[in-house]
Specification:
This protein has 231 residues and is of the alpha/beta class. It has helices at 42-53, 70-77, 96-101, 104-117, 156-159, 162-166, 178-181, 185-196, 213-229; strands at 30-35, 59-65, 86-90, 122-126, 143-149, 169-173, 201-203. It has a 7-stranded parallel beta sheet with strand order 3-2-4-1-5-6-7, sandwiched between helices. It is globular, with a radius of gyration of 17 Å.
Length: 231
């Protein structure tokens, strides 16, 4: 059987784009997924977004780890949101299984948050660290961010992979480390453009004041578009 055949992976579920409305007809929160390799700065990006946007938006977060609540506990320790707005999914397997193949646990977590603290404007769903093939099901999130970092090698954009080439936003993080690891930021920008065409790329350094602003500006644009899609 060819690997592209729909029955090649019988355990895998197929999800269409999620309905923008809740069962009662009200608009649900915009869901944005954040994926990327281990250590690229996904949790730090989520934390920075929460700090910057929490006074103007109603936000909640779902984190994914294989066997722990490590990322959720990081967010709780740093008090980026009230505890009832942060929940964790333990995937028990490779992270992409819970964000792409069988999203039921994440969907339940998102819906439970909306029931408990809603109405929400934004739900951030953070994947556990995964490789360059990690992508989110359209049944789980409305847009996805892929985070890489310069310390992982300035050839990552050139290597491509679905995370790099198809994410709605590519974030190249830890630019402050470029001089220390010999990363060519201009080369990374060229390679990302070659792989992604017109899809946006931003460079961030979260240790700098306002370092997450390129990502938060993009999130605000998505929220404005979401309001038009789901009035």
């Amino acid at each position: 059987m060819h690997l592209d055949h729909p029955d090649a992976f019988p355990h895998r579920h197929t999800y269409s784009a999620a309905d923008p409305h809740r069962p009662d007809g009200t608009r649900r929160a915009l869901r944005i997924g954040l994926g990327g390799p281990v250590g690229s700065g996904k949790t730090a990006t989520v934390a920075a977004l929460c700090r910057l946007l929490r006074d103007e938006l109603s936000i909640a977060v779902v984190t994914n780890d294989i066997y722990t609540r490590e990322d959720a506990e990081f967010l709780l320790r740093h008090a980026v949101l009230p505890p009832e707005r942060i929940t964790a999914v333990e995937t028990g397997a490779c992270p992409h299984t819970a964000i792409r193949d069988d999203i039921s646990a994440n969907l339940e977590a998102v819906e439970d948050l909306e029931d408990a603290v809603g109405p929400l404007d934004l739900v951030l769903v953070e994947s556990g660290g995964d490789n360059l093939t990690a992508t989110f099901s359209k049944g789980l999130v409305d847009a996805q961010i892929f985070v890489i970092d310069v310390a992982g090698g300035d050839d990552i954009p050139r290597k491509g992979g679905p995370g790099v080439t198809t994410a709605d936003l590519l974030v190249v993080n830890k630019t402050d480390l470029a001089p220390y690891v010999g990363a060519d930021l201009e080369g990374m920008a060229r390679d990302a453009k070659a792989q992604r065409g017109d899809l946006p790329v931003v460079f961030t350094s979260l240790v700098a004041e306002g370092g997450v602003r390129p990502v938060s500006d993009w999130v605000r644009e998505r929220l404005a578009g979401w309001a038009a899609v789901a009035p």
